[in-house]
């Protein structure tokens, strides 16, 4: 009887091994299968089901490469850090790693669930952009591996820009040179030479281009570098049928508004972890918000009537020329174009600056792999984390569509590159627990300003609210008056001045 039980047990183990082997050969590993591994396995927790196939595949490849088994376990997102901490206090259930947004890293570190990582050459700008390193740095120590990021960029309808450029170039080509020829025949060669010398170098270059290259040149020039360029475009654009607005974005969501003030406010210093470095109320921030309010005059729409999904859908329908979007738009537009559901050409570029004198800076969110400080196998956990975040970043994008935080995945010719450039200079979300509600306060402030509220009073109130959250004390900020509008100065030419003087003499 005992002998038969041993045989049955052996058969069960054999069947489990065969099942695992089959899964390994297929490069897939079901979570339920993986959880049957012994206590020597590494365990990684995550909350985004879109990562399941990627993590299971990487677990199989890592086991084949290193002989170390990894168990990915999907968990609920609510109270995630608390769940990790409680599990770490129980024998046999401690996750060795987990995946969270970098804005939760202070909470993770304070609970002991985020181990300080040795540098080992990984946390530098050759491997990661500075924004990624800042996102995972807490009190000057790296406490996670940047995995992927989210930020904003400008999407534009290239077909519309090409149509405008073509009309201009065709009009230039259609000009008859008769009058110029007659003038040239009566003039001297020296005059021609002088005129040529006076030509701008850029104009000379433009004149040398073919018609097709001239169109491309003008398309590139029409992509706005500043909001002044955008407003000039709006004033001069002869909108074709179906176009309802030049530019639109989700005015309700701070993630799409932040670039207006990103360069001029400070939410915790470079690494977003210093409560003494809070500065949202200053003259430059006021000027930036005045610019934001000005946009309502040109692109008038009610903030409560706009959602991000609506912006994307209207762009797909050809109802706008420019839109502020996040990384998901790349995959969406690529698929719609391949399926012939989107009939226009398109492109992505950096968010325009507010003006020649004022910059923009987008907000970014970095999702990272954290090594649990309570893990019994920190060395191997580090190795798998680097395997995910650095060594297999290409696979991450291919399998999930998420943009890897590590450098070198995309080239300048890729549509994704515009988001990479924005991410490199972006402001990472702060990780301070005391300011976690600040984003709701900011959204309320932006909504008020968009609707016409006084900018300085609105930012003053916002600053007082945020600082009260941190200190627990009532804060009163000194009021900063709005900057005076510069008087327009008219410059008269010399001939006009002579005429004015003559009229006074008479």
How many helical stretches? 22
Number of strands: 15
Spans with pLDDT under 50 lasting ≥5 residues? 1-37, 179-188, 487-494
Under the CATH scheme, the architecture of one domain is 3-Layer(aba) Sandwich
**Structural shape:** globular
Largest sheet, if any? 7 strands, mixed
Query: Which structural class best describes the helix and strand composition?
Result: alpha/beta
Share in β-strands: 5-15%
* Full CATH superfamily name of one domain: Periplasmic binding protein-like II
Distance between the termini: 131 Å
Which CATH C-level class of one domain is it? Alpha Beta
CATH fold label of one domain: D-Maltodextrin-Binding Protein, domain 2
Structure description:
With 506 residues, the chain is an alpha/beta fold. It has a domain at 19-147 and 368-403: Periplasmic binding protein-like II (D-Maltodextrin-Binding Protein, domain 2, 3-Layer(aba) Sandwich), CATH 3.40.190.10. Helix content is 48%, strand content 12%. It is built from 22 helices and 15 strands. The protein has helices spanning 2-25, 31-34, 52-66, 80-88, 105-110, 130-135, 158-174, 178-186, 189-198, 201-207, 211-222, 227-236, 254-257, 283-298, 308-316, 328-338, 378-391, 393-400, 417-424, 438-450, 455-471, 494-505; strands at residues 42-46, 70-74, 97-101, 137-138, 141-142, 145-150, 152-157, 245-248, 266-267, 278-279, 320-326, 346-349, 363-371, 403-404, 427-428. The strands form four sheets. Strands 1, 2, 3, 6, 13, 14 and 15 form a seven-stranded mixed sheet that branches. It has a four-stranded mixed sheet with strand order 8-11-7-12, with helices on both faces. Strand 4 and strand 5 form a beta hairpin. The longest helix is centred in the first third of the chain and has 24 residues, at 2-25. The protein is globular and about 80 Å long. The model is unreliable at 1-37, 179-188 and 487-494 (pLDDT under 50).
């Amino acid at each position: 009887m005992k002998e038969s039980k041993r045989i049955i047990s052996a058969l069960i183990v054999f069947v489990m091994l065969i099942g695992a082997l089959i899964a390994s050969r297929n490069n897939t590993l079901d979570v339920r299968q993986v959880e049957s591994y012994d206590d020597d396995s590494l365990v990684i927790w995550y909350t985004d089901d879109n990562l399941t196939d990627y993590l299971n595949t990487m677990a199989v490849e890592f086991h084949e490469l290193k002989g170390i088994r990894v168990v990915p376990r999907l968990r609920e997102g609510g109270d995630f850090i608390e769940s990790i901490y409680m599990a770490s206090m129980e024998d046999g259930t401690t996750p060795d790693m987990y995946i969270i947004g970098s804005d939760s890293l202070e909470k993770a570190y304070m609970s002991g669930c985020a181990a300080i990582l040795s540098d080992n050459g990984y946390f530098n700008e050759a491997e990661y952009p500075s924004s990624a390193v800042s996102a995972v740095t807490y009190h000057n120590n790296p406490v996670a591996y940047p995995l992927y990021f989210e930020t904003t960029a400008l999407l534009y309808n290239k077909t519309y820009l090409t149509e405008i450029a073509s009309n201009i170039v065709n009009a230039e080509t259609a000009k008859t040179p008769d009058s110029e020829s007659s003038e040239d025949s009566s003039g001297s060669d020296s005059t021609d030479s002088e005129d040529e010398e006076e030509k701008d170098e850029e104009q000379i270059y433009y004149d040398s281009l073919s018609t097709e290259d001239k169109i491309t040149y003008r398309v590139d020039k029409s992509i706005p570098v500043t909001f002044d360029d955008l407003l000039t475009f709006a004033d001069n654009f002869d909108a074709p049928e179906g176009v309802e607005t030049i530019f639109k974005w989700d005015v309700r969501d701070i993630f799409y508004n932040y670039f207006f003030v990103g360069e001029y406010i400070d939410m915790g210093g470079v690494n977003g972890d210093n409560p003494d470095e809070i500065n949202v109320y200053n003259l430059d921030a006021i000027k930036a918000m005045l610019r934001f309010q000005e946009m309502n005059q040109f692109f008038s729409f009610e903030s409560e009537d706009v959602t991000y999904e609506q912006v994307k859908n209207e762009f797909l329908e050809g109802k706008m020329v420019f839109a502020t979007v996040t990384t998901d738009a790349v995959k969406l537009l690529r698929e719609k174009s391949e399926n012939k559901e989107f009939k226009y050409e398109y492109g992505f570029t950096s968010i325009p600056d507010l003006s020649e004198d004022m910059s923009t800076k987008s907000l970014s969110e970095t999702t990272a792999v954290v090594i649990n400080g309570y893990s019994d196998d920190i060395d191997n956990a580090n190795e798998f984390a680097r395997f995910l975040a650095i060594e297999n970043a290409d696979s991450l994008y291919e399998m999930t569509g998420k943009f890897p935080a590590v450098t070198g995945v995309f080239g300048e010719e890729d549509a994704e590159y515009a988001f990479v450039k924005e991410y490199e200079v972006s402001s990472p979300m702060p990780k301070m627990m005391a300011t976690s509600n600040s984003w709701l306060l900011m959204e309320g402030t932006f909504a008020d300003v968009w609707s016409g509220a006084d900018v300085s009073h609105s930012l003053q109130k916002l600053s007082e609210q945020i600082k009260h959250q941190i200190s627990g004390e009532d804060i009163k900020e000194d009021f900063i008056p709005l900057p005076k509008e510069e008087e327009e100065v008219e410059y008269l030419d010399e001939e006009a001045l002579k005429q004015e003087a003559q009229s006074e003499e008479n």
